[in-house]
Design a protein that fits this description.
Elements: H1 6-13, H2 18-31, H3 37-43, H4 49-62, H5 65-71, H6 80-93, H7 98-104, H8 110-123, H9 129-132, H10 141-154, H11 160-166, H12 172-185, H13 191-200, H14 203-216, H15 219-234, H16 241-251, H17 262-278, H18 282-295, H19 301-309, H20 316-330, H21 336-344, H22 349-359, H23 365-370, H24 377-390, H25 393-402, H26 408-421, H27 427-436, H28 440-451, H29 456-465, H30 471-484, H31 489-496, H32 502-515, H33 521-526, H34 533-542, H35 549-558, H36 564-577, H37 583-592, H38 595-608, H39 614-618, H40 626-640
Length: about 650
């Protein structure tokens, strides 16, 4: 900051106007004026919250040990708000606060020592370990508890013995914090001591111990832990659902050779179904369902259905979990319970149908077919998707039925599925479907699906469409031939470009442009002289990415077209060609043509790097059309760089 008037800033800080006081803090922050640290510290007590925030920002921006030392007295302030501001600033100062924190850890005020530990804990600063170790035996239990959690967060392996000794603390809160710290460390030396606590302690300590064990146990450890807990679980002793599920996930993870006996499954199934019924929140119930799915017992379907029936809506993530759980507990079998629930309909139908698709349950196809007349449009789409996933001969037959169904989206999905599953065998039925289709978007989707089938009969089918009296069939023929990407289609497309219907000609030119054969350029260029503006615009869009002298000459001719949008797109494409011999022509369009073409010309000149055009562009910086002004300003800025 230049020409700082120190006296003026002091006057502003002393002003009765909070806006002036805040402005002063902001100017001090801008200049990082460390001579104002005492004044800024005092401003942290200002009655105006804006001034307090500005002072805090200024102090953290100035930084340095001097600011940290200025915060130390705030930690002893009788006001909790002031103490919290001091703590916040010390945390934000990072390494600049190191010296001050080292002093605070030895302070005679035990509350201040705890504040210092909490700051170190939140900033994960591990340079104070030697000062923290003794504090695990501090006379104040709050200090000991904070030190235990802090050591756990710092994850220094040498802290483990100190944390293990804290498990014997007389204060339950300190023991709880030591368990939390060991859980964060995830050091296996703590496993057995924590296991003993799950057997001997009660209440919060036992809950914390089992949570910590679940975090640090390996798959082998987890199986030992669960087997050890099994008798207590059977007797009805309570444990955290999350911890038990976390342990189950480990014992049933890939690579684990744990093979539980039926009694083990029965015990934990009873535990988790009880927890499911006791849980009052959705997250807790889903956690229990996750655990039940790991046990792979079909009886768990009741919990899944019960959960779904109780919800008004289910998000995608939850639905995916429920589908996976259904697949898991069913063992990929179409169980009678699934069939019964499916035929009843209701909220579970969608999850069950998706699960059957994932299972590729061929035996479910007849039931899925039976649903056609019973379910709504959205459910029907899921049924089609499931049949596609199943992919059996019987499911293909059902998909043919859907191809003639009442819902357009279902017909689309069925066509795509048949192209994928039946391939060439579906060609005739799919062409019939195109002929019968009344909705254009569905017709296009079936055409696109047909084009994916690698069969000569598809090309022949699209070619025959070009002779159809129906204009839309000829259009679909041209569209399909372009999607096939077959060189043999080019002659047919050239003929289609002479069709009496502009829509067919558009599709033909678009397809030829998509094919990208260089020798098709002469035919494409002819499209720029078509009687229909729509056809010419379609050709211009298709020419994006093409280059060459013939293309350039055709675009130059199109600059004289009567249609403004043909001229607009021609100018843009000429800019993309990157050839400088047409700069004067584009400048002429900038000067003489209508507003949209002027804007396109400015963009083209910018794209070409036409520095000689700056003078011409400057004539239009105040043009009334904002699109012209914006394009011109951008071009001038670029070309002057």
């Amino acid at each position: 900051m230049e020409n700082v008037d120190i006296d003026s800033l002091r006057d502003m800080l002393a002003s009765e106007d909070p806006c002036l006081r805040r402005d002063a803090c902001e100017r001090i922050e801008e200049g990082r004026l460390n001579g104002f640290v005492p004044a800024l510290t005092e401003a942290l007590r200002d009655a105006d919250p804006g001034v307090r925030e500005a002072a805090l920002n200024a102090l953290t921006s100035i930084g340095g040990p001097e600011v940290a030392e200025a915060m130390v007295p705030l930690l002893k302030d009788p006001s909790a708000a002031i103490r919290n501001i001091g703590i916040e600033i010390l945390e934000l100062l990072g390494q600049d606060a190191s010296s001050a924190l080292a002093t605070l850890l030895k302070d005679s005020d035990q509350d201040v020592v705890k504040f210092a530990i909490d700051i170190i804990s939140n900033t994960r600063n591990d340079e104070f370990l030697n000062l923290l170790y003794p504090l695990i035996k501090h006379e104040n239990p709050n200090v000991r508890a904070s030190a235990a959690v802090c050591l756990g967060k710092l994850r220094d392996q040498e802290s483990v013995p100190a944390l293990l000794s804290a498990l014997e603390d007389q204060e339950e809160w300190v023991k709880f914090s030591a368990i939390e710290g060991l859980g964060l460390m995830q050091d296996r030396r703590a496993l057995q001591p924590l296991m003993r606590m799950t057997e001997t302690d009660s209440g919060l300590i036992k809950e914390a111990a089992i949570d910590a064990v679940a975090k640090m146990a390996s798959a082998v450890d987890a199986s030992a832990v669960l087997q050890k807990l099994e008798p207590m679980v059977r007797k009805g002793k309570d444990f955290s659902t999350g911890a038990i599920v976390e342990l189950l996930e480990k014992v049933f993870s890939a690579g684990s050779d744990f093979r539980p006996d039926p009694e083990f499954r029965k015990t934990y199934f009873a535990f988790l179904t009880r927890k499911f019924e006791e849980e009052t929140d959705r997250a807790g119930q889903l956690k229990a369902i996750r655990g039940l799915s790991l046990l792979k017992m079909p009886e768990a379907l009741d919990c899944i259905f019960s959960y779904i029936d109780d919800q008004n809506d289910i998000d995608e993530e939850t639905e995916a979990l429920l589908v996976d759980s259904t697949v898991s507990v069913s063992g990929r079998r179409f169980l009678p319970a699934l069939k019964e629930k499916l035929l009843k309909g209701g909220k579970s139908l969608k999850v069950i149908v998706k699960a059957l698709g994932e299972m590729r349950a061929v035996s479910a196809v007849p039931v899925l077919k039976e649903l056609v007349s019973r379910v709504g449009k959205n459910e029907l789409r899921e049924v089609v998707a499931a049949l596609e996933s199943i992919g059996s001969t019987s499911s293909i037959e059902v998909l043919y039925d859907f191809l003639e169904g009442p819902d357009g989206h279902t017909r689309k999905v069925a066509a795509r599925a048949l192209a994928s599953l039946a391939g060439p065998a579906a060609v005739t039925r799919l062409f019939d479907a195109v002929r019968k289709e009344s909705y254009r978007d569905v017709m296009e989707e079936i055409t696109d699906s047909l084009a994916l089938i690698p069969a000569d009969s598809v090309r022949k089918g699209f070619t025959s469409f070009l002779e159809d009296p129906n204009e839309q069939m000829r259009e679909m023929g041209a569209r399909g031939l372009g999607l096939i990407g077959d060189e043999k289609a080019l002659d047919s497309l050239k003929a289609a470009a002479q069709d009496r219907s502009p829509s067919v000609r558009k599709a033909a030119y678009k397809s030829m442009a998509r094919l990208g054969f260089p020798y098709a350029a002469d035919v494409l260029i002819k499209g720029l002289a078509d009687d229909s503006d729509d056809v010419k615009l379609s050709v211009l869009k298709g020419l994006n990415g093409w280059s060459g002298e013939k293309i350039k000459s055709a675009l130059v001719r199109s600059l004289m077209d009567r249609n403004i949008w043909v001229r607009y797109h021609s100018v843009l494409l000429l800019g993309e060609l990157g050839e400088h011999d047409i700069e004067n022509l584009i400048i002429e369009k900038l000067i003489k043509d209508e507003a949209p073409v002027k804007a396109a010309a400015a963009r083209a000149l910018e794209r070409l790097g036409a520095t000689a055009a700056v003078g011409a562009l400057e004539q239009f910086v105040n043009h009334p059309d904002p699109s012209v002004r914006g394009a011109v300003e951008s071009a001038i800025e670029t070309l002057r760089c």
